[in-house]
Amino acid sequence: MKTLKTATFLLLASLSIGALKAQTVDEIVSKYVTALGGKDIISTIKTLYVESSIGIMGQDAPCTTSIINGKGYKNELDFSGTKIVQCITDKSGWAINPMAGSAEATAIPEEQVKASQSQLQVGGPLYDYAAKGNKVELVGKDTAGGKMSYKVKLKTEGVEITYFIDASTYYINKAVSKFSVNGQDIESTASFSDYRKTDFGYTMAFIQKVELPQFTLQITNKKVEVNKAIDPVIFEMPK
After folding, report:
1. Do residues 108 and 88 touch, judged by C-beta distance below 8 A?
2. Cβ atoms < 10 Å from Cβ of 182
């Protein structure tokens, strides 16, 4: 009986592995898009506004993120009374960070802008990846967040991202990004959880943990508004 149970387990396991291998990268990406709400939903999102809290160095800092899809991304963080701003557009970027000695708006280096421009895209770089000029490949499978996941590598200008896509939900569990800033190679890891569907029908992770070389951020979304009016002027660099 024990031998039969073992044989049955191995058979089911091999069938499961076979099913994972049978998936093509386009099928996986398609199911990921469907899990987020589908093309019909994502294609109608013009703007995204998020209020969140960022845990950093033992403190919680409120922040807001404003996105005009494909055009502009702006994050404003209030850290102990100090306002830190990062803005990326489809053409350039700028930042204000008094904690780094820059109380005035300063241009972000071009290579850093290119590495950050994926933040402009609702649905992420995997959504409609071919039209964006991105290249993807299925590089295997692994566990992430305790879940069996497909490993999908995406290459775009200035950055390489390996996504761990949950084989059962098709949500992204983890993303490992590699990029270069000022000639230095940098790797960051983002873990995603607490996926929720917004009133608009768009699903997104409400908890994100970002591990950088020198510190870790815990981002918790508090409020999400889809297609809220956002003035493009906010992305212009202050003079």
Report:
1. yes
2. 8
Residue 55 C-beta-side C-alpha neighbours within 13 Å: 11
Domain 23-232 sits in CATH 3.20.20.70: no
Report pTM. 0.85
Alpha-carbon gap, residue 50 to 187, rounded angstroms: 25
Residue pointed to by tokens 């996986």: 28
Cα atoms in the Cβ-side hemisphere of radius 13 Å centred on 103: 1
- Tell me the CA distances in angstroms from 122 to 1, 34, 101, 218, one per residue in order: 53, 14, 32, 21
Q: What are residue 117's phi and psi, to 5 degrees?
A: -70, -10
d(C-alpha 47, C-alpha 45), whole Å = 6
Distance CA 122, CA 70 (A): 8
Torsional sign, CA 132, 134, 140, 142: negative
Among all chains, which residue has been given the structure tokens 């402009």?
Answer: 120
| pLDDT, tens digit (0-9, with 9 covering 90-100), for 132-176 | 999 999 999 999 988 999 999 999 877 899 999 999 999 999 999
Specify the 3-state DSSP secondary structure of 157: coil
Contacts of 120 by beta carbon, 8 Å cutoff, 6+ apart: 67, 68, 69, 70, 71, 72, 73, 88, 89, 90
Size of the chain, expressed as the number of residues it contains: 239
